[in-house]
Amino acid sequence: MESIERAMREFIVDNFLFGQDGADLTDEASLLEHGIIDSTGVLELVSFLEGGYQFKIDDEELIPENLDSISNLARFVRRKLQVHQA
Question: Looking at the domain 3-18+26-85, which fold is it?
Answer without folding.
Answer: 1.10.1200
